[in-house]
Amino acid sequence: MDRFYSNENFPRQAVEQLRRIGHDVLNSFDAGNANRAVPDEEVLIFAAAEARILLTQNRRHFLMLHNRKAINHAGIVICTFDHDFERLALRVHTAVLKVSETDGKLIRVIRPTR
Q: Got the DSSP string for 43-109?
């Protein structure tokens, strides 16, 4: 299974679901980075140094960082918010499985419309 790093705005409940599926997920709280207002660029650098795919709902800022190509990263998964955390985790899991190699890739996970 994949290794992820979730920043502060990614739901803890979705992290727990991803762990149940079998993914190795480190969140900002466990890493000692919670409530520290760590800049997005440093968040991505941390995830890259740990060889972890970044999970975030901060789509705009991480899309800009990805497009700048200034940081080599293990992948970025940008998600829209979904109150159904189990469904969100399953969508992340499925989206990452579809990509043969995540290094340097941006993966979008969009909440389905009803």
A: HHHHHHHTT-EEEES-HHHHHHHHHHT-S--S-EEEE---S-HHHHHHHHHHHHHT-S--TT-EEEE
